[in-house]
Design a protein that fits this description.
Elements (H helix, E strand, L loop, with lengths): L18 H23 L6 H49 L2 H13 L5 H9 L14 E12 L4 E16 L3 E7 L2 H10 L5 E5 L6 H8 L4 E7 L5 E5 L6 E3 L30 E7 H5 L7 E14 L4 E5 L4 E12 L8 E8 L19 E7 L4 E8 L2
Parallel strand pairs: 1-11, 3-4
Antiparallel strand pairs: 1-2, 2-9, 3-8, 5-6, 5-9, 7-8, 10-14, 11-13, 12-14
Helix pairs in contact: 1-2, 3-4
Keywords: Membrane, Transmembrane, Transmembrane helix
């Protein structure tokens, strides 16, 4: 063991001998010894005593050998055998199981039997985990995020968000989904309710600005992809204006499970209740690739979009849609002040495992620096930028 390493509790512990097996071995040995003593000390008379004597004489060696064998196996062989099998076969057995089976069993043993464990399973895995070796999981191992604020007037500003995802395994999909909502319940349920591998969520806090914000955002969407075609060749493609097809509300249940069944504690929702709160758009990634190629899997995806937001909301944020390892998040807010006179001050508020935040005080726009994250973010994790009038 090298310096700084800590032994894992119980890592070298061998299983304890099973009491029942040892008791059986002990009884067999005692019975065999008793038979031996009887054979040596008993002078049987002719007839059935002689027959019994001959039986005991023939059986006692076998009984003693079996008892000693069982006891020796339980004390010396079994612990070593179990330990070695666990060391050699354990990881391979786990790899052969479905990710969902492994996670659900593990969480149930730690957290107990709770239907809310499903949210943890989906969040950690980045999907349902119903295919061998994580074939249906979306996990980004290199993720870059930037957002920029630019005032349109004294009430409205443009929020431009850019995110780049490099996936651990190629994502076998040829379409990208965008959910736009102004409903907080939908915002917090989409990650768990969407079983499609590639999607993004837009949230507009002001419902009165929702329709105009979405219409303003759609022409700004830009997507670039590194992908594999149908024969496995690598290609790179970037989009100009993306064609986004709006999904009719009658088809929403095909995209979000909570419109067709209960989702944990969330009962089944009625699509008619959200006609003014939700819009769903779909992009065929093969359109970006061009007519010569068909997208079969995505290696890397970059998304850029600009949305209208109200300045008096006092905050904006970015949130991970699937597990992402993020090095840093860049923010620029100088454009929020039309006059450039330092009208606002800002504070960065991460909600992550770890963020290495340099400052927890209110900052001037020029003092904003990149947020050094260097950690995994799961669905629900992200970072918020708050602002207020300069004090």
């Amino acid at each position: 063991m090298t310096a700084g390493e800590q032994p894992r509790p119980g890592g070298d512990a061998r299983p304890k001998p099973r009491t029942g097996v040892l008791r059986t071995a002990f009884v067999l040995v005692v019975v065999g010894v008793a038979a031996l003593i009887t054979v040596v000390s008993w002078r049987a008379r002719p007839g059935w005593p002689t027959a019994l004597h001959d039986v005991l004489e023939a059986v006692f060696p076998l009984v003693i050998v079996v008892g000693c064998g069982i006891g020796g196996y339980e004390l010396f062989v079994h612990p070593r055998l179990v330990t070695e099998l666990a060391r050699i076969s354990g990881p391979r057995i786990v790899e052969a199981l479905l990710p969902q089976q492994v996670m659900e069993t593990f969480l149930q043993s730690i957290y107990g039997d709770n239907e809310a464990n499903r949210d943890v399973v989906t969040g950690v895995l980045g999907g349902e985990g119903l295919r061998p070796y994580g074939g249906d999981l979306t996990i980004s191992t290199h993720t870059g995020v930037t957002f920029e604020l630019s005032a349109v007037d004294h009430e409205i500003y443009h929020l431009t968000t850019a995110a780049t995802y490099s996936f651990k395994k190629n994502v076998p999909v040829d379409r990208f989904i965008i959910f736009a909502t102004c409903n907080a319940l939908l915002r917090d349920s989409i990650s768990a309710g969407c079983q499609l591998p590639l999607f993004e969520t837009w949230f507009v806090p002001d419902s009165s600005l929702f329709e105009s914000s979405v219409e303003d955002m759609l022409p700004s969407v830009r997507i670039s992809i590194d992908y594999l075609d149908h024969v496995g060749r690598h290609h790179v493609a970037a989009s100009g204006k993306v064609e986004l097809r709006e999904v009719k509300y009658q088809q929403w249940a095909d995209y979000l499970t909570f419109f067709r069944t209960d989702l944990g504690p969330l009962p089944r929702q009625n699509t008619l209740d959200y006609l003014s709160d939700l819009r769903i758009f779909e992009c065929d990634l093969s359109d970006i690739a061009g007519e010569d190629h068909t997208v079969s899997a995505i290696e890397r995806l970059s998304l850029r979009a600009t949305a209208l937001q109200r300045i008096d909301d006092g905050y904006c944020y970015w949130q991970a849609s699937y597990p992402c390892y993020v090095e840093r998040i860049s923010m620029s807010a100088k454009g929020l002040d039309l006059e450039g006179g330092g009208a606002y001050e800002f504070r960065v508020v991460p909600f992550t495992f770890r963020s290495n935040t340099a400052s927890a005080r209110w900052l001037k726009p020029e003092e904003l620096s990149d947020l050094d994250v260097r950690s995994w973010l799961l669905p629900g994790h992200g970072v918020a930028l708050l602002w207020r009038a300069a004090q």
